[in-house]
Design goal:
The protein is α+β, with helices and mostly antiparallel strands. It contains 8 helices and 8 strands. The strands form 2 sheets. It has a 4-stranded antiparallel beta sheet with strand order 2-1-7-8. Strands 5-4-3-6 form a 4-stranded antiparallel beta sheet. A hairpin with a 7-residue loop joins strand 7 (205-211) and strand 8. The chain is globular and about 50 Å long. The model has no long low-confidence stretch (mean pLDDT 93).
């Protein structure tokens, strides 16, 4: 079992519905459905290009997937999660845009958002005691030899290279898209997510996702409102 802390819209949020249509999966229910041809893409190609974000569930990462450390338990993790969510306050990312991280497409903030950076930093720190050290295979998968000194230290100390000053929030929409298909993909995504591009994104809750076993789809375990009375939502 692995756990991860994400920002994800509520199950009944229009952005969740748009992401479910695009990815063909609902992380709240675990249900999937076949994709249809769209734009210049047939159903088979879209299914391949969205496989990774479909498995992980639509989200933006705050604390990357981790196994529980020895001597800790899920119930302890949930107790700290309750307390942490209650201490935080909701905020708004002023504008989200369609971005590209190498060959991947994602919804990303148009500029800096100090409240988002602070939430990400504190999520990493608060739940670090629950994270088991990475295995040698997990470290190798991140290709540490290709990382700079700071990101390599982050990987070993925090379990993920892209934290603190290297954090870049993104809500992934595709796996790697071949260069010759990127223009068509951008056009299709701009159409599919038009209601959410160049618009603010309210962050009012924090989600705990789980992966029952390696390679299995991630699903929502709990979703808690920031600064509100705990109303844990179980998938």
């Amino acid at each position: 079992m692995r756990y991860a802390f994400y920002i994800s819209p509520d199950e009944d949020d229009p952005l969740s519905a748009a992401a479910e249509r695009w990815l063909g999966g609902n992380p709240f229910t675990g249900e999937t459905h076949a994709l249809q041809a769209a734009g210049d893409f047939d159903a088979a190609e879209l299914t391949v290009l969205t496989a990774d974000p479909r498995r992980y569930g639509f989200h933006g990462t705050l604390k990357a997937p981790f196994e529980l450390a020895a001597g800790t338990s899920e119930s302890q993790l949930l107790d700290v999660f309750d307390a942490f969510a209650g201490e935080r306050v909701s905020f708004e990312i002023p504008k989200m845009v369609l971005g590209q991280l190498g060959p991947f497409f994602a919804l990303v903030p148009a500029g800096d958002c100090p409240e988002l950076q602070d939430l990400a930093n504190e999520t990493v720190r608060r739940f670090s005691p629950f994270r088991a050290p990475l295995s040698e295979a997990d470290i190798a998968r991140r290709k540490p030899e290709q990382l700079g000194d700071v990101m390599r230290r982050n990987l070993l100390e925090w379990g993920y290279p892209y934290v603190f000053e290297n954090f870049r929030f993104h809500m992934t929409l595709t796996g790697p898209v071949p260069v010759e298909r990127q223009t068509a993909m951008r056009t299709l995504l701009e159409q599919s997510f038009a209601p959410f591009i160049d618009k603010p994104l309210t962050v009012a809750s924090l989600s705990l996702f789980v992966e029952p076993e390696r390679g299995a789809p991630f699903t929502v375990h709990s979703l808690l409102p920031l600064g509100g009375t705990s109303k844990r939502k179980m998938a």
